[in-house]
Amino acid sequence: MLGILVVYPLLDLRRYKQDLHWYLRQIEEVIIQVLNLYDIAAYRDEDTGVWVNGNKIAAVGISASRWITTHGFALNVSPDIATYFNPSIIIPCGISNKGITSMEQELKTPICLHEVAQKVQTCFENVFNVPLKPGDDLQ
User: Fold this and answer.
1) How confident is the prediction for the chain on average, in pLDDT?
2) Is 123 a catalytic residue?
3) Of the candidates 24, 105, 20, the residue with the CA atom closest to the CA atom of residue 57
4) pLDDT in tens, 56-87
5) Cβ partners under 8 Å of residue 26, min gap 6
6) Residue 44: how many CB atoms within 10 A of its CB?
7) Active-site pick, 13, 20, 24, 93
8) What is the pTM of this model?
9) Which of 105, 119, 94 is nearest to 31 (CA)?
10) How far does CA 22 lie from the centroid of its chain?
11) Which neighbouring-strand residues pair with 43?
């Protein structure tokens, strides 16, 4: 298992706000709220995504067609960063002057991907003020 939680929400932004920048910031807010639940001080940066201590912990990529969203985010829960993000092989998000981190690396303890997925679901419901239906599991 890679230890990366990938979430691609499909939302009709006509029911929220027809503004992709707003949507991007809401997705970042979901991630920041999840990380705050683990006492990880996360924030936005000039580069898209969510950051911790100058290192990217979540990549966000959004798209929409007729205001229906596609794409989403990837949250580094417990990936083997040295293997999967080796700078001689890949430059994550094309940003070469900043590092990559994970929840497990920040907490210095193993973390359950399923537990994080459940917290993402709860924070998503709160940020977007929408209950997810049974079967909409973020797993």
Assistant:
1) 88
2) no
3) 105
4) 999 999 999 999 998 899 999 998 877 767 66
5) 127, 128
6) 16
7) 93
8) 0.88
9) 119
10) 15
11) 51
